[in-house]
Specification:
alpha/beta, Rossmann fold, seven-stranded parallel beta sheet, 14% strand
Length: 271
């Protein structure tokens, strides 16, 4: 384990227990960053141990529930107590929810989704950004999604949350254009993580279909972040085509296409 005096930069990664968040943390560790990782599940300690095996620096893990105000404040307390500048803040924590909004989904789940995918992103950025601006340095990566480009029939709240994240990232980037602080939006497509299982979407076309490797998505996100890019559509060429087509396609057509992918039971139509 290293200490703050070894000159290694510090990266904070939320949602780092598995999936894209874990792979982002792994890339950052391999590229010479000390890590502070956060998540709310039991897998965090296992992730910490695995990351320590690939890192020459420190890997501090904090189990916090970022869907709550108290969890965000607790994580920021750990950041402040480190008494080190945050060079990279990867706001990746998020959750999905599938099903018909009016008749199938649970309000508590959707409000928690908003709290995690939207509120925690705003709150942590508000706490960490002022120090970055004051020292005129730092990079923020916000995990959005290609879902941000289309109305999310049968994922209505999730897609809306990712549209918020995308808009928020691009707005912050513009506000900070005269500083050395950069903001990058990471836009993955369907990725091979626990997302679809947790969102109860395994019986949908998108849930049962081919997915991207989270390690490749994370590497693309890291490279875009370090290059100071505005955004990156990560993963397969299909994702890039979908994002490009979305700029010209009417909203009603995009909603219909999303319904085809995300409607419960749609995977059976392909069997």
């Amino acid at each position: 384990m290293s200490d703050a005096g070894d000159g290694r930069p510090l990266a904070v990664v939320t949602g780092a227990s598995s999936g894209i968040g874990y792979e982002l943390a792994k890339v950052l560790a391999e590229e010479g960053f000390d890590l502070m990782i956060a998540a709310e599940d039991d897998e965090l300690s296992q992730a910490q141990a695995r990351l320590a095996g690939v890192s020459d620096g420190s890997v501090d893990a904090h189990r916090v529930d970022l869907a709550t105000e108290a969890g965000v404040i607790e994580l920021y307390r750990h950041i402040a107590n480190a008494e080190r500048p945050v060079e990279v803040l990867a706001l990746n924590a998020g959750v999905g929810a599938g099903g018909a909004f009016a008749t199938e989904t649970d309000l508590a789940d959707e409000l928690r989704l908003v709290d995690l995918n939207v509120r925690s992103v705003v709150h942590l950025a508000k706490l960490v950004l002022p120090e970055m601006v004051e020292r005129d340095g730092g990079r923020i990566l916000i995990t959005s999604s290609i879902a941000s480009t289309m109305p999310g029939s049968f994922q209505a709240v999730y897609n809306a949350s990712k549209s918020f994240d995308q808009s928020f990232a691009l707005a912050l980037r513009n506000e900070l254009k005269d500083t050395a602080v950069t903001v990058t939006a990471l836009m993955p497509g369907p990725t091979d993580t626990e997302f679809f299982q947790r969102a109860d979407m395994e019986d949908t076309r998108i849930g049962a279909g081919k997915k991207d490797d989270p390690a490749e998505v994370a590497r693309e996100g890291y490279e875009a972040l370090m290059a100071g890019k505005q955004k990156v559509v990560a993963g397969s060429f299909k994702n890039k085509l979908q994002a490009a087509a979305g700029r010209a396609m009417p909203e009603s057509m995009k909603a219909k296409a999303h319904r085809h992918m995300a409607e419960p039971g749609s995977a059976k139509d392909d069997s």
